[in-house]
Amino acid sequence: MSVYENVEISALQGGPANLPQYEGKAVLLVNVASKCGLTPQYAALEELQSRYAGRGFTVLGVPCNQFMGQEPGSAEEIAEFCSATYGVTFPMTEKIEVNGDDRHPLYERLVTAADAEGHDGDIRWNFEKFVISPKGEVVARFSPQVVPDAPELVATIEAHLPQ
Q: Which residues constitute the catalytic centre (predicted)?
């Protein structure tokens, strides 16, 4: 079953994010935050978006404020920060919860995947990454400390590009 199937989430700027539109694409889904020590990863995420968008790939940013309140802004503030500071062009969803009783259904599906060290379950911090295949399957999970341009992450993306 696709991680996108029967899951509703809004886009950062309102309206549905229409997750089924990502079927057929390789996706790097990342929970993001604007006031985190890992926030500079936005630059490398945007580089991946630029490099692979024409080959059936997208980054999908998912703002979350569950880790020390590091994403406190409104949708407009988040969008402005990402655009002005890092030139972000990739799509972003509304701010959601990725852990706990109010965990979004999308993350209910994602957290069952384990990373290379065997960690599954709760998201550990901002910028935890999931590579999703064009069929909507989670094919890899990477810890927050794995930078977006790490060779193992880039190789995983390239291995799952549809074109």
A: 36
Q: Spot the catalytic one: 9, 11, 36, 75.
A: 36
Active site residue 82: no
Residue 9 pLDDT level (bands cut at 50, 70, 90)? very high
Buried b (16+ CB within 10 A) or exposed e, 15-33: eebebeebeebbbbbbbbb
Comparing CA positions, the residue from 157, 163, 105 lying closest to residue 131 is: 157
pTM as predicted: 0.96
Q: What is the mean pLDDT of the chain?
A: 96
Name the fold adopted by 19-159: Glutaredoxin (3.40.30)
- Measured between its terminal Cα atoms, the distance across the chain in Å is 22
Helix ranges restricted to H, the chain: 41-52, 75-86, 105-110, 151-159
